[in-house]
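Hi L.,

You mentioned the student needs an example of a multi-chain input paired with its predicted structure. This one should do, with 1449 residues in total across all chains.
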Amino acid sequence: MKRIASLLCLLCVAWHVALAAPSPSEKLDLDATVLPSVLPGEFEPVQFAVRVSNHGMFPMKVDLVYQEYRRNQVKLRMTRSAFLTPGSSTVLRFYRVESGSFGNPDFQVYVNGKYLDSPFAGLQMASLYKRSNNTLSSILVGGGLPVELVEYVSFPDRRLVMASPIPLSQWSEDPKDYFSWQGHEIWLSPKDVLPDGVKRALLEWVRAGGQLVYVYLADDPWPEELPGRLPGEHIQKLGLGRVVHFRMFAFGNKAGLNYRTFLEKWKELNETHPNPKGKKVSPGEEFMTHSPEFLEAMRTPSIQSVYGSYHGAWQIFGLFEPKVPLTLLLVMMILFSVLVFPLSHWYYRRKGNVLMLLVSTPACSFLFCLLILLVITFSDGWRIRTSTMGITYLDQAERLAVTEAHLSLLAPYVPTSDFQFDREDRLSIHLDHANEETIVLADQPGQCLHPRIVTPRRPLNLHTKRLEHRGERLRVIEVDGGLEVVNGLGAEVEALCLVRENGERLVAPLPIPAGGRARLVPALEWKPKQLPDGTMESDIVGTNPNDHWIDQMLSLCSNSCRVEEANRSLDVDKLFASLPKSCDGFQNMFCAVLRKPVFYSPGFQGKMADNTQIVFGPWKAE
Amino acid sequence: MRFTSDSLNPVFLKEIRQMFRNRSVLILTSLLLIGEIAMLLIVRFFADDIGDSDELGQICFIIQMAAISLVILLMTGFVQCSNFAKERQNMDLDYSRLSVLTPFTIVCGKVLTSVAMIAFIFSMCLPFMFIAYFLGGISIMEICSIVLALMPVYFLISLVSVLLGATGMKSAETLTVLLGAPSLLGLGVNLAIYSSGWRHSRHLSYILRIEFGILLVAGLFFAWSIGVLTQRKANTMFWSRVYILLIAVLGPVLFLLSRLACWPFTHQTPYFVYFFLGNPMTESYIQLCVWVIVWTACVLLVVAGSLGERMEPGPRVMAERPRNRFLRLLHFLCSSGRAGALVLGWLLFLPVFLSLVCGLADWSSESIIWLLATLPLYLLFYAQASAILVRYFPSLGWAAVVIVIGVFVVFPVLCIALCPFESNASERIWLLTTPFGLELGDPTRSVAVSAVLAIVSGCWLLPYYCDNLRRHLYEEVPPPPVLHKEEQK
Amino acid sequence: MKIKIDGVTKRYRNTLAADHVSFSFESGKIYGFVGPNGAGKTTTIKVMSTLVQPDEGDVFFDDISTVLYPELVRRVLGYMPDALPSYKDIQVWEYLDFFARTFGLKGEKRRKRLADIEEFTGLVPLREKIIDGLSKGMKQRVSLARALVSDPEVLVLDEPAAGLDPRARIDLRNLLKILASQGKAILLSSHILSELQDICDGAVIIERGKVLASGSIEEIGKKMSPTSDGTVVPPPLPGETPATPTVPVSLPAEARYLVVTSLGASEAVRTKLLEDPDVLKVEVLTEDEVHVTIRGEDEQVPRKMAPLFAAGLPVTGFHIRKMALEEIFMRITSGEVQ
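Structure written out for the whole complex:
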């Protein structure tokens, strides 16, 4: 009887537990507003003001979870949590890392562990983080331009357009705020005045590799006070970046064509034919698609092609590709296939005990799995290999160092320690392979990446940018008609090349230790390899940087060039592609190769580490 | 050494021995191995031409899983089913039952054989999957998760084949349809789950629910297989009813467990609140739906299963009654015999019905809940009506069910369909005795009508239920005899 | 052990396969179960072996009902069906091992039992052959071995000798005699009545679902009543077809058929015998053999023969001629099938 009573009680409990329901939600008002920022981007913290008003008496735990997906699988997750008493509010900031190939981010809100549906119904989340995979630029329109232009430029490329919500005069003067984008187009009218601080910030950002395009409308006078503009030049190289000035809607000699005409037509169409429900394009946009002149006039230099050609050079450096010894594995598997079933079956049948197949087959399989693991481990090694390459533009006069670094890692297992980066590092993750699980980013001062970002045997590529003021110097001293250098770069200089005003090249005959001094000698024997005209940097693939590093470095660090006034029919992309690749124009520049990461954080140093630091910049003899 | 432990299921032992000599199995296994090698050859010599080499491993793995699934379907589905059916046809199965083997042991043996063959196939392909992992594009976790997600599907296929074999079915066309359907369904569901981002924390619970659902259905087939193999006048319905009761209890528990299982992956904190009958539920509408659906399904299974049963349990069933009165009550509910089935149906349905009536569902809208509430009521009414007919006309048998369905369902529907009535309530009154009567417009009226029909017919049979129950509880159970052979021992 | 079949009735749709079948047999005896095709033998055997549940009636094994407690009965029952084992892809020893396990035999006990059974049924050279590849006779042996694997007390054999060659049949007969001598109750159905005659202690004759006669063969023979018109047909000699009745003679139930042999004095013997009023008929077959129909029990027969010896006739011997099973069968059954 006791047993039956216990059984009954157990059943009742089980029944009730089975019918468990979550607690009815307390009345909750979650008010999250995104605090405005100049630009959307990863390093500009996106802030949510969270306010909880409820009738309860107890604090509530609010979790904001930011997730990014790849192929519908969560790849990145960042969480911010706060305990809020009723009626209180707080600001939660996200410091998002650009993840390149990911998209479709979402925010989730959990209150006391319970998921809330659509907490940000009124918020345009997409406008904050969504960007097309086809572009890496933003387009900012100054307040002085007609608002309708904002709509125009979203068509036909569907590039993300954002009219800055705050006036031009309040744009950020921190260059880091512009870092999330590889390029910016700034549409300005004569009425738009960029504050000096903004100009300086943009310049610094350009030096760090940004591609800046100033777009002016036809008929507007050419702005004189714009930064980086030199008379007669439309394209200027600064540090690792470029500035392009572009005049739009310049129809040349075609009479009767004026952008204002198009604007008026556009307005008229949209007013008289408001978008019918369900139609994807407005009449104004339809009008545009049927106007080749307008479309032609709409074109601006494609930031991506600029960026792409520049960054194509990265492909020659330090990427790992895991190799699977397929032939050996094939032979092993043929042996396995014969052993595991046909041979075993025949043997056990003769013995009269076919049941042993149930034992021998798994045993054989496990054994061969171990063999496969051994083969691949021996083939790949069991050490973590890292390869880093950093290119730094060092402006000794301004003590400014801008660095772009590429980090590659190949590990046979998940490392145990985090990836540590400095706060100054702007981190991009290029995960080209399926990852095992969601990456949880640690949010700590000095930022780090969780080691689970690594997929065993899959290369991990990280890209960092850094812009900071540094004191390292390469002193050049004129001595007895020749030049001597003092290595103040903080590490041994393995190779050094200096180019004089007259194009003469001088090299250091031997590696220069840190703090050491060396006399330079002419590099007559190092004739630059003449690349054919039109060769893209990305064509230089598979070249050992140790052999032709100077050519490659110089091709990357080529100076500004002079271009004639842009012809309206000139293809701007082709213009960039035809920039000279030889060392012409590298006067008064030095280029040094170090084997230690001085200006960037390698993040993680494997047992087999290969670091290359290239420093270049202008020099001046003392 | 002969690997012949005494604790092994003898049916399993025999089946495995047969499987490893079966020509079809040998051919399928060899073809699978050849296919794997061929795939490796293609990868070795044409990898560069294939395209995105980062996903090579994923492509290989998908092809492997497709091949393995096909082999398993053929092996544990077709081959085992047809062997079982032949065994039944040739009376070999009957001879094996002239022993202490029970139908439960036989079905367990068959299922174990399937499981062993599935494990054998997977263990044989394990190194190839390992290589797929190293080829890239897929992780170990993904491999394990896909394999685990497909296991319930394979289990379901095995149990469907056992059930079909137990019924003696071995026509190739029928098997193709009856085995192919759950296979495709299960595979499709799993592929959809995988592609929709199953590792998203919110989806994991859905996946677990689906997997549990598949396992529960497989278990039902297991119970039915035992029933099919049980002799006709024995307690054929016992295991099925016990399992249905188990589903009724386990279903909501598994629902809860699937949510709990997601907890390590989410930020959700599990909440435990005791739910008492009649309390309104606000946000947990979906949980109410789950509970109602599961229990209603149980009622439908129990009552539908009773339609073909004899009225009272036979002498053999009566002889198997336990001594304990409470256990006898459970035995009465679970054993063959229409009275027990109908009483069990009412017992399962009443909590659902009362909780709904107490205002947990929105009766003003045509929600699925009150539709589910009416279906069991009608089925109870039909079962009870046919039971009443059989009581007064014992020779009717199955014909009673047909008459009841014909009179109360088919005839009114035909009338409404064929006669040129306009669709209004006065003509649709004909549908009162059918579930389609809910079209009356007022859900409360429909439920009331169906409840009245079921309750009235139930009251008519109440003395009969009571008499059955009384006999089951109080009639003496003679002690089981002892064979003199065992006495001598 | 006593096995009692009590009023077993089984209906298949419109056919009454078994109609209140009742008989019994016990340990140490071999009973034949004979009947024409479709008589209901297999149905009755299946009911006995708990494969089929009867619609009415029951079978009792020492008062244990097969309807209520089939699991108990199966432990003491060995059933050899008329269908041959048809398992594919399984060896003989594996087949027997499976059945041994189904009866709960474990470990050494099972191995020993299997070895004994294989020895007993002559399956040792065939133990590793696949069953499907065996000849019919060998399959019968396997089937018998399977029936014996659990050392049952009751053996029910359905057509065990069907398809066997003569040597195999003799072997089987000997096996069954040994088993009966071990105390097993054996019921076997067969169409080869002459063989049944040799080994059976009793018989059950069934036709169209009804038992026409049951008991020992002698008892059945004794209970044979004359034809309705009083014609008695003398039993035919071996090889002879039964003669049609020619002489209507009313014959009491205690009549006996005697065979008297002498040395060429058949006529004298006949004359002397006819002096006895209890001698009903004397038929001279040869000069050495005379068939006599005499009234009286078995114990009275020697007294009836005494006058022959007293008369100094050269009588070499006499014996009571028992009715063969075949004869009984042919007499009782009408040859109708259902």
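You could point out the following to them. Chain C is about 30% helix and 25% strand. Chain C touches chain B at residues 1, 49-51, 53, 61-64, 67-72, 74-77, 79, 81, 83, 85-91, 94-95, 97-99, 101-104, 106-107, 110, 130, 146, 150, 153 (CB under 8 Å).

Best wishes,
N.
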